[in-house]
Predict the structure.
Amino acid sequence: MNQLNQSSQNKQQIFTVTRLNSAVRMILEQDLGLVWLTGELSNLAMPSSGHWYFSLKDMSAQVRCAMFKGNNRRVPFRPQDGMQVLVQARVSLYEPRGDYQLIIESMQPAGDGMLALRFEELKRRLGAEGLFDEGAKRPLPREPRAVGLVTSATGAALHDMLTVLRRRAPDLPVFIYPTQVQGSAATAQIVSAIMLANRRAEVDVLIVGRGGGSLEDLWCFNEEAVARAIHGSAIPVVSAVGHEVDVTISDFAADLRAPTPSAAAELVAPDRSARAQRLVHLHQRLTQAMNRHQTAARHGFALLQKRLDHQDPKRRLEQQSQRLDELSARLQQLLASRLHQGERRLANLELRLQAKSPEKLLAAGKRRHQLAEERLHALMARRQDVAGHRLAMLSARLDGVSPLATLGRGYAIVRTPTGEVISRAAQVNVGEPLVTTLAEGQLRVRVEEVHNQ
C-alpha cells in the first residue's frame, strides 16, 4: 500500500513556490484581462520612484493596487484617501510575497467616470445598429418654410436662437416645442416634442438643444430614447447641445451637429441680406453675359457677311476652273511618271529572267556536280591512305602484345587437362598430367617434382 501511494505521488507534478506564484499570475492576467471597478482609495503612498501604491475598498472587502508612473501621469486630478474612483486594471499577483493585486491602467472620479462609460457603451451599440451612418443623414432645406425649436421655454438658448433667426430671416415662421432639458422628466418630454413636431408637419427643420452645463446636466441628450427619436424623425434634425466642446449622443444621431444653439440658428436660417446681395450679383452677371452674347452675335454676323461675299457663284466658278486645270496637269504628270516606272520595271524583269534561264542553271549545276565528284574522289583517296597507315600501325602493336609472338620466343603455356592455366608450382601435384602449348603444337607431360621456390 505504501509503495502504491509513493508511486501516485511521483506521478503528480511538484511545484516550487516561485513556479506556483508565476503560474497563478499568468492565469490571472490571461483569463481576466482588463476589468473596470469602482471603490474608495485608502493607504495611498506616493514614493520618490513616481509609482502609486494604495488599496481600493468597499463596505466588505479591499484589494491592493499599484499604478506605475507611466500610467499615473495621465490622471487629471490629485488622488486622496477616501476618494471614490473608477479604475481600469489588470488582475495580477505580486510573486515575491504571493499577494493578489491590481495593476491600475487608468483612473477617474467615480461619478463622471460611470457616465463616461455609459456614454461610450451606448455610442458603440447604437453605432453598430447604423443610427450614426453618414449615408442616412439628410441635407437641410436651403429655403425652409418654417423652423421648429425643441428646447426649454425659459432658457437662454431659446433667446439666442430667436435673436439670430429674427436678424437673418425676420419673416421666417418659428414654432417652439417647449420641453425640459434637464432632470429625470426631460428625456420623455424631448421625445414627445420631436414626435409632436413630426405629427403636425408644420416645419421643415428641427433644432433640438440647450445651453451649456455639466455632463450630468446634459445627460438627457445622451439617452437612447432621444437618439432613436432623432434618428426616426421624418423632419431633418440639427443637434445643438451645450458649447462647442460638449459632445452628446444626440450629435451623432442628428442629421447635422451645431457647436452651439446660436450656430444652429445660423445654419438653418437663410440670410435675407446676403440673399439680396447675391441677387444683385446675379443680376450683374446676367447683364454682363447678355452684353457679351450680343457682342459675339454682332461679330458673328460680320463674319457671315464676309463669308457670303466670298461665296459669289461667278468667283467660285472661276476658282473651280483653275483648280480643274491644275488637277489635269497633275494627272498628266502622274500618268507619265507611272508609264516610265512601268518601263523600267519591265526591263529589270527581263534581265532577271535571262539570269534565271534553265540552260544557264543546268550548266551551272553540271559544273557544281563535276567539282563535287572530283572533291569526293580526292577525299576518298586521302581517307584510304590514312586508314591503311593506321591499320599497319595497329597490326604492329597487336603483334607486339600477341601471346603467339611470346610463344615464338621460346615460352610455353601450361594448363591442366581441364584448361586451367598454371602460373604457380603450388597449383599442381607430383604425377599430375599437364598440357603444354608451344608456338607450334602441344606436349602432354607429367609432373615428377614440385619446387615451390
Q: What stands out?
A: The first strand starts at residue 34 and ends at 45. The chain has a mean pLDDT of 84.
